[in-house]
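Each record in this resource describes a single protein on a pair of labelled lines. With that in mind, the following record should read easily:

===
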Amino acid sequence: MRIVLLVILLCGVARADPLPLDLPTPFPDDPRCGHFAFDRRMPLIPAARPQVRDPTIHGDMVAVVDALAATLAADLELSGAFTVVSGEPSGPELWDSDLAFDYLGWYEAGASLVIGGEVRPDKGGLVRVRLWCRLTEEADTLRIGGAEAVLRPERVATFAHRYVNALVQCITGVPGAFGTRIVYARRTGPGQPKEIWMTEFGSNEQVQISHDGVIAMLPAWGPGGSIAWTGYRSGDPDLYITRCDGCKNMVSRDGPYVFSARPGLDSGVAFSPDGTFAAITLVTLGNSDVWLLDGHTGEEVARLTDSPAIDASATWSPDGQQIAFVSDRLGFPQVFVMKSDGRDQHPLPLPGSYNTSPDWSPDGTEIAYQARGMGSPFSIWSFDLTTGSARRLTSGPWEDEEPSWSPDGRAIVFTSTRQGGRKLLYVMSRSGSGVRVLFRDGGDYYTPAWERTFVR
C-alpha cells in the first residue's frame, strides 16, 4: 500500500492561562501505526517539499516558517524512510478543510508524503504549533499524539525533529534517530588539544565531556550511557570512562574512571551489546592486538588476536557473537571478522587494498567502513553481509572517513574535509543521500560514535 501523509502546523485559539514551555514529545497514537509492513529494502516513500505557510498579514512568521520547512525536508531525507520530491497538484491549496483537501491531486503529483504547515504568533514572543497527518490514499487522518505546542521560535526545529521521529516510528515500527546522542573528539581551534564532546542529533548544542587539557580521542559508548575514550592525562595513552561501578581507580571526585592503564598503548575500546565485555586495542612490545576485557572492571579476559601484524579497531555485531576489526596481515589494511572468542578470523571480500574503520549496523546486516585506492582520497562504503556485495556511499576529491551508524540503522555520521579542508561532522542516510553538515563553528571533528542501545 502506498502511503501519503500530510503534516500541517496550525494554530489554535489563544489561551489566557500561563502556557507550559516544556517541549512535548509527539508519539504514534493510531492503531495502524507499526502495521504498514515497511521494510528498509523497499523504495523510499516520496514526500513533497514542505508547504509551510505564514498566515500573518505582514509576514511576521516568515523566518520561523522557512526554518521549519527546511528542517522538515532535511529530516525526511535523513529518515531512511522518505525522500523529498518537487511535484505539486495544479489546483488551489485548501489546507484547512478535511473534505476539500486535494488527496488525489497530491497523489497524482507523485508525493506520497505531503508536508504542509502554518505557524502563528502567540503571546510573549512564543509561537503556537499544531501538527497532524493525513493518509491520502485512504483519505483519512493518521493520529499522532502530543502534537500541539506553544514554544519559543528557536525550539520549533526541535519539535519538528520529534514529530518526524513519531511519523517514522508509526510507519516503520522503529523511532527515528533525532534526539539520540553522538560523541566525538573535537579540536576547538589551532593549537588546542582534542577533547571529547557530545551532541544530540538535531540540536545545535555541544557539551564537553573530557577536560583533560591534553589529547583525548577515540570516544565510544559504554553501558548505561557512559562514555569511554583514550586519553593522555597521565602521560601515557590509557582508557578512561565516565561511569564504571567495578573500576578501582577514579581520577578525581567527579571522574572519569581509569578503565585500562596497562603498559603500552590502550585504545579503541568497543563494548559488547550487553556491556559484559570490552574489546580494546592493546600495543605491547610494539605489537598491536585486540584484547577482551571485563566490561565492568576492565580486567583482562582473553587475547583475541595474536599475529605479528597490526590488529585494531574492533566493532561488535549487534548479537554480540562476532567482532569485526582491521588487520594488515595480508600486507595491507583490511577488515576482518572473527567470533567473539577469537576463533575463525577471516577477511571480508572487500574491493580495494585499504579498508579501515569498520562499524557494524544495528540490524546486523551491513558493515560501514572507509576505503581508498592508490592516490585517491577516502570514501565511505558499506558491505552487505547478506549478499556479499560492497557499495560506495560517498565520493569526491575530499576525505570522507570514520562512519558510525545511527541507533535505528537509517543514517550514518562521518567526518569529511569537503568544505575547505577542515574535518567537519556530516550525516547522511543509509543510502548515501541527504548529506548534511552538523556544525560550522571553526572546530575540527574526529571519530564520531553514535550511541547504541545496550541490552541486558
Q: What stands out?
A: The chain has two domains: 5-172, 181-450. Residues 1-21 have pLDDT under 50 and may be disordered.
